[in-house]
Amino acid sequence: MKRCILLLLTVLMLFSSCELFMEQPKAGDVYVVSIGLDYQNNNSADDLRGTLYDAREVFRALQLVTEKNGQTWHGYLLVQEGASSTQTTFNTYEGEGVDKVNYASKEHVLKTLRTIRDQADANDLTIFTYSGHGVLDTGELVLGYTGVNDDSYLFHPNELLDELAAIPGRKLFILDSCYSGMFVTESPSSLSTVYENSLNDWYAKYWQQNQYKVPDVMALTASAHTDSYEQVFAATHIHGIFTAALLQALGWDPAVTDPSSVTNLNPFVPARKEGQLTVDGLYTYIKDHQDAPLRSLWYWPQPDVQHPMTTGGALDMVLFHF
Predict the structure, then answer these.
(1) Is residue 131 within 8 Å of 51, Cβ to Cβ?
(2) CB 220 within 8 A of CB 270
(3) Dihedral (C-alpha) 97, 102, 103, 109: value to the nearest 10 degrees?
(4) What pLDDT, on a 0 to 100 scale, did the predictor assign at position 19?
């Protein structure tokens, strides 16, 4: 009798949980936009030391993952480096697969996203990465200064989300910046954990009758409503704590001093599970491996607490299927 009951429960669980299975995406093209700024040309923003390493190495690591998976790569690298605010084009990254390297101004970011919008289709994957400042309480991205003393270089969360939503296919944005959790909004199956949602709100969302749906745009961010920090690997080689763990998740050594010499990821993509690399797989790996505590304990205060965030919900987004 007990065996019959156990068998019945197993069958019921299979039928009731089928909506939680991840749909395997078709392997379309992969578009990657990587942005990094050091702010040496912006007197209103503190200089950052690890952001250019972040952008270039995540860019290269994602290229290697794409090629390993046999998919077509389209890469856009946007950087602001040094004291000049009049630069428009850079050739500072030596590597294959770079469609265009531009100054990381808001104008160029918008043009890049709209170029992808006009080229991508429903089977494609777009990954947007950013390493730089985030504005207190709003999370706005601080893009390249163009010599104008106004807020024209600020990129609001709603603007980025609208631009990404207009691109066909799956989209993931990865932000290593302070207050980047402000970009983690409500999904079809979860509430944002940044805004003031009560336990009753979360409970009601969990039990609502709406069908679960994978969001077209998913977020992976370095922190919630807090600062993000950098990690020193060598005097001239620095990464954001979050990005260092992300690179490790992709199989890249964040301590490597010559990114252009890396031709393979070894071991290959530690964050993958059962032949798939997903947003949750990256998130879980980063939480387990970042060089910063997730929370501060009352009996052992931690000054550099940093808790990454991702779009919640019952369903995960598959990025690559190996």
Answers:
(1) yes
(2) no
(3) -90
(4) 40
* Residue 111 φ then ψ, to 5°: -65, -40
Q: Please, what is the average pLDDT of the chain?
A: 80
Q: Which two tokens stand for residue 179?
A: 């207050």
Lowest mean pLDDT among 33-42, 140-149, 280-289: 140-149
174 CB-near residues (< 8 Å, 6+ apart): 58, 127, 128, 129, 130, 220, 221, 246
Q: Is the peptide bond before 293 cis (omega within 30 degrees of 0)?
A: no
**pLDDT range class, residue 319, cuts 50, 70, 90:** very high
Q: Could you tell me how many residues make up the chain?
A: 322
What is the pLDDT confidence band of residue 97, given thresholds at 50, 70 and 90? very low
Only one residue has tokens 């969302």, namely: 205
| Tokens describing residue 192 | 């944002």
Structural Rg of the chain based on CA atoms: 20
pLDDT tens digits, 211-266: 556 677 888 999 877 889 999 998 889 999 999 999 999 999 999 888 878 888 98
Of 54, 57, 64, residue with least CA distance to 30: 64
Q: How far is CA 318 from CA 22, 38, 127, 215, 235, in A?
A: 7, 32, 12, 12, 37
Residue 252: phi and psi, rounded to 5, are -100, 140
237 vs 53: CA distance, rounded Å: 7
Q: How far is CA 276 from the centre of its chain?
A: 17
Contact (Cβ atoms closer than 8 angstroms) between residue 254 and residue 239 = yes
Q: Could you tell me the two tokens for 198? A: 């009560």
